[in-house]
């Protein structure tokens, strides 16, 4: 992959993370999945080297960088076959939201641990009956008493929340009632894993990954006043401050996976010989792989644009670019994996080559955290100015 547009520091970071990923690779990931364990060793080493917190403020133990740096880390780990899904959630979403909007106490409590990997946070927004419509979120928080120090009581349900079993807390998107208008407005709450009334049930997924998916049930979970992140009136701004990094990092996840699959296919096509020449010499094999490479490169360019805009503080511009990057990377990832499996033929469906499981995994980049259709809605409404159908 060409990196000429990146700074020397970014190129050095990319090379260093690639070396780390190579030491672990796809075999490590498949072993972890088969044993039902977690990627503790890779997570700890990435943290020790400063990669997990590269986007967090230096004063709290982070690297002082942004999404440009963090997306490089996830992409290169993915290209090596060992992506860390919780990077999307813990440092990118939760770390960013707390760094930008958290109180000083919240920053002191959470950011050093998120930066050095000793603390992990999950993120809960999706609900069974809301899907992509965040305006239908029914998880609500109400004050138990009056005054700024009154506890919160949080009630509702969430689905498809990654890694709750290994997370010290979950950043939950709920809604509170606006005292002036009576309307519900979004707010974010930090809910400790062992909080009374905070229940979780693992969802049985066909997707094979170290990170498990959970349904959450919040039954009048009592939280202290300072569990609310930032300003109660800035909920929507805070929410999108987390969702844009989520889309950028999901793009990195997809690009990394696509690169891994493509590299396996290219290696195979160079050496596999059925007739007189390697199969990669045939254009029916070579051209689709070349197309997959082009699509991944284009996706990365949009991801880099989104990261740059976000790191420069342009939330509106970053929102458009992050959605486009996520869409492009999801499509490129699925097509790269599909073509890689097809290139290997029957071998593409064996465990030995490690590509078949990616057929399911690659769909994640299309579906989560927002479907490609909702991104097309966003672009058609926000960018092109077309009327809404909903």
Description:
The chain contains eleven helices and seven strands. The protein is an alpha+beta fold and 390 residues long. The strands form two sheets. The protein has a four-stranded antiparallel beta sheet, with no helix packed on it. Strand 4 and strand 5 (184-192) form a beta hairpin. Helix 4 packs antiparallel against helix 5 (104-116), helix 6 packs antiparallel against helix 7 (283-311) and helix 8 (315-344) packs antiparallel against helix 11. The longest helix is centred in the middle third of the chain and has 37 residues, at 235-271. The radius of gyration is 21 Å and the shape is globular.
Quick gist of this model?
The chain has 390 residues and is of the alpha+beta class.
Provide the fold topology.
Blueprint: H1 8-35, H2 40-48, H3 67-79, H4 86-101, H5 104-116, E1 121-124, E2 140-144, E3 151-162, E4 169-177, E5 184-192, E6 198-202, E7 213-223, H6 235-271, H7 283-311, H8 315-344, H9 356-361, H10 364-367, H11 372-383
Parallel strand pairs: 1-4
Antiparallel strand pairs: 2-3, 3-7, 4-5, 6-7
Helix pairs in contact: 1-3, 3-6, 4-5, 4-6, 6-7, 6-8, 7-8, 8-11
């Amino acid at each position: 992959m060409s990196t000429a547009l990146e700074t020397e520091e970014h190129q050095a970071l990319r090379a260093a993370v690639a070396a780390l990923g190579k030491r672990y690779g796809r075999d490590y990931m498949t072993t972890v999945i088969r044993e039902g364990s977690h990627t503790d060793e890779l997570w700890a080493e990435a943290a020790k080297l400063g990669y997990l917190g590269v986007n967090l403020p230096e004063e709290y133990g982070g690297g002082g960088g942004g999404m440009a740096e963090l997306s490089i880390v996830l992409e290169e780990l993915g290209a090596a076959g060992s992506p860390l899904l919780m990077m999307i959630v813990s440092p990118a979403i939760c770390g960013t939201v707390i760094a930008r909007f958290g109180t000083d106490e919240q920053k002191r409590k959470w950011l050093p641990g998120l930066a050095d990997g000793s603390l992990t946070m999950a993120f809960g927004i999706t609900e069974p009956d809301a899907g992509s419509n965040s305006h239908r979120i029914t998880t609500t928080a109400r004050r138990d008493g009056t005054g700024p120090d009154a506890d919160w009581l949080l009630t509702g349900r969430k689905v498809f929340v990654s890694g709750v079993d290994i997370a010290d807390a979950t950043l939950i998107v709920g809604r509170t009632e606006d005292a002036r208008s009576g309307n519900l407005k979004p707010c974010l709450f930090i809910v400790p894993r062992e909080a009374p009334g905070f229940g979780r049930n693992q969802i049985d997924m066909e997707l094979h990954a170290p990170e498990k998916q959970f349904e959450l049930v919040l039954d009048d979970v009592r939280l202290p006043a300072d569990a609310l992140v930032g300003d109660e009136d800035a909920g929507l701004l805070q929410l999108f401050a987390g969702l844009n990094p989520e889309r950028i990092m999901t793009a990195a996840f997809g690009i990394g996976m696509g690169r891994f699959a493509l590299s396996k296919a290219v290696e195979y096509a160079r050496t596999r010989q059925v007739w007189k020449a390697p199969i990669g010499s045939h254009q029916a094999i070579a051209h689709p792989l070349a197309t997959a490479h082009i699509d991944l490169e284009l996706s990365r360019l949009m991801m880099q644009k989104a990261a740059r805009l976000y790191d420069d503080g342009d939330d509106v511009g970053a929102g458009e670019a992050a959605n486009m990057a996520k869409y492009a990377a999801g499509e490129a990832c699925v097509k790269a994996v599909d073509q890689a499996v097809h290139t290997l033929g029957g071998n593409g469906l064996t465990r030995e080559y490690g590509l078949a499981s990616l057929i399911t995994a690659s769909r994640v980049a299309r579906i989560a955290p927002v479907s490609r259709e909702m991104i097309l809605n966003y672009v058609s409404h926000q960018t092109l100015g077309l009327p809404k159908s909903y």
